[in-house]
Amino acid sequence: MDAQISGGTGVGTTANVRSNLPSVRSNLQGPSSGNGRRMTSKKTRSKKGKRRKRRRSKKTKTNKTPPYLPPELKLVNPTQYRFEHLATQLKWRLQEGRGEAVYQIGVEDNGLLVGLSEGDMRASLKTLRRMAEKVGADITLLREREVDYDSDRNCRKISEVLVRKVPDDQQFLDLRVAVLGNVDSGKSTLLGVLTQGELDNGRGRARLNLFRHLHEIQTGRTSSISFEILGFNSKGEVVNYSDSRTAEEICESSSKMITFIDLAGHHKYLKTTIFGLTSYCPDFAMLVVSANTGIAGTTREHLGLAMALKVPIFIVVSKVDLCAKGTVERTVRQLEHVLKLPGCNKVPMVVASPDDAVTAAQQFAQSSSITPIFTLSSVSGESLALLKVFFNILPPLSNSKEQEELMQQLTEFQVDEIYTVPDVGTVVGGTLYSGVCREGERLVVGPTDEGRFLRLKVGSIHRNRSACRVLRAGQAATLALGNFDRSLLRKGMVMVSPKMNPTICWQFEAAIVLLFHAKTFRRGFQVTVHVGNVRQTATVECLHGKEELRTGERAVVCFRFIKHPEYLRMGAKLLFREGVTKGIGHVTTCTQGRPQDRVWETLT
C-alpha cells in the first residue's frame, strides 16, 4: 500500500514482526556501538587513520537518524481524494480476504520496521477506523511494538490491526476444524468449554451437551460425528452459548464462525473418523493430546491421516492441571520430536503468549510446515484465551477468486447424513462442493443401487441451525426434501444439477502409495475405499506394470466396487484401508457407464 500502512488479503507481511524486531535493532544499533569502541581506542594518529575515523563517524550519524517518511505517505489527515482511494483499497482487500484483512501500520512494503510517533500513530488509527466505517467494518488492535533509534528520543511504534466486515445477510466467514486425538484426551470437553463458555468441573460436565447418543453419555466416549459452533463478532469478541443464545442468534451476530467437527478417538470407530475427514472437507485439524498420557493410542494414526489428506494441523496439549510442569514439558518434547521426523518435516511452534498466538495464526496459514502447539486446561482455564486469539485471527486458506470460480460451476451437493424430521419430512446434511443452491431448486440425486438418478426439489435450507435461503460452494448445510422417500437415499450419494448429465462409476483407476501392508498387495485383495463422502469395499482388479506391491511402493491400481456404483470426480483424494493395511492416492480415470434410465420421476 505505502510505506506507513501495509496489509494483505487476510494475512499481512508481519507474521515475523516479533522475530524481525531484534535483528532490525541490531542492524541499526550495531554500527553505532562498534564505532564508539573504535573511536575511543588509542591507535597511531596517521592521516590514513584519521580519514577512516571521519568516514566511520559519518556512517554512525547516518545510522542513528531514523528514516525520513514523506508527509504524503502518512495516514494523518489525508485529503478527500486520498481517503477515497484508501477506502476503495480496503474494500478490495476485504473481498480478497473473504471479510478479513490485517494491516501493519509503521511497516514499509519491504518489511522494514520504521515506526510512527505517538501522535502519528493515533492519527493513522483514527483514519483507518474511518476507512473501516465507510466500508462497513470494525478494527481491532492485535499488538503494538516499539522501534528504538539511538538519536530519536521520542518512542516510535508499529501496530498490527485486524479489519473485519460487519456481518450482513449471513455472509460470515466459516472455517471448519476437525478435532482429532486419542480416546479420553479431552476433545469433547474442550469443545464444550469453548462453545458453552463455562469451565469443566473435572468430571466431564462440559461435554454432555455434545453427545448424541445415550451410550456416549454413559461411557463418556464419542462414537459419532457431532458439530459445534464458536463465533467471533466484527470486534473480535467471542460469541457462544454463554449468554443463553440460540444458534440462530450466534450466526446473526458473528462475522466469523468456527465449526468444530468432533470425531471419535477410539480405534473401533476409526472408519467414522476417516469419513469425517474425507467427507466434510475440514479447513484445519486440531489434534488433542493429553498431557498425562502423551502420544498414545490413535494419536499417531490420526496425525498420519491428517497429513495424508493434506489437512493443516495444529496441536493442543490438554489436562495440564493434572500434571507437574516437568510432565507437560516432556509431552511437548515428545510431540516436537515426532513432528521433526522425516515423515512429518514439521516446524513445531509452542504458543506461550498472545503475541505468539497472533504470529502462529499468520504463519500457520502461510506455511503448511508450521505446527503451533498450545498447552491448556479445560478445568482451570489456563491458556484458553490464547487458543481463542488463534481462532479469531486464523485466516481462510482460499481467497475470494477461488470461491467465485467454484460458485460459477454447476451445483454439486454431497450427501453425508440422512434424517427424518417430524412435520418436515426427509432431510439430508452435507457439503456443497460447487455451484449455488437455492430454495425451490430442482436437482437429481444418485446413483441408486441400479445406477439411476432421481429427481427431487429442495424445500428449505438450514445452515448452522438457522434458516438460510442461498447456499454457496464450500458451505455445509441441511436441505429439506419434503416427502421424498428416505429409503431411496444413502450416504455417499450426490445431489447435482440435471445440466451436469451425471454418470456412474463401477470401476476406476488410482495412482496410490502403499503406506503399510504386512505381506504383499496383489490382485484380488479387498479394501475399504474412502473417496470424499464415498465409503465402500472395492476389489483390486489389477496392478499396472507390477504383479504385487510392498510397503512404500507406488503403482497405478484398478479398483472395482463390489456393491453398487458411485459418483467419483477425477483427481479426488483416495484413502484405503483393511486391517493394518493402509494407502493413499488419487483417482486418475473412471470407467463411466450411463444408466439405461438416467432419471426417474419421483413424488416431489
TrEMBL record:
SUPFAM superfamilies tied to this protein: EF-Tu/eEF-1alpha/eIF2-gamma C-terminal domain, P-loop containing nucleoside triphosphate hydrolases, Translation proteins
Keywords noted in UniProt: GTP-binding, Nucleotide-binding
InterPro entries: EF-Tu_GTPase (IPR050055), EFTu-like_2 (IPR004161), GTPBP1-like (IPR035531), P-loop_NTPase (IPR027417), T_Tr_GTP-bd_dom (IPR000795), Transl_B-barrel_sf (IPR009000), Transl_elong_EF1A/Init_IF2_C (IPR009001)
Pfam families, sorted: GTP_EFTU, GTP_EFTU_D2
Region described as Disordered: 1-73
Composition-biased stretches (Polar residues): 12-35
One MF annotation (Gene Ontology) recorded for this entry: translation elongation factor activity
UniProt cross-references to Gene3D superfamilies, sorted A to Z: P-loop containing nucleotide triphosphate hydrolases, Translation factors
Tr-type G domain span: 172-400
Domain of life the protein comes from: Eukaryota
Stretches with biased composition (Basic residues): 39-62
Protein family membership: Belongs to the TRAFAC class translation factor GTPase superfamily. Classic translation factor GTPase family. EF-Tu/EF-1A subfamily.
Descriptive protein name: Tr-type G domain-containing protein
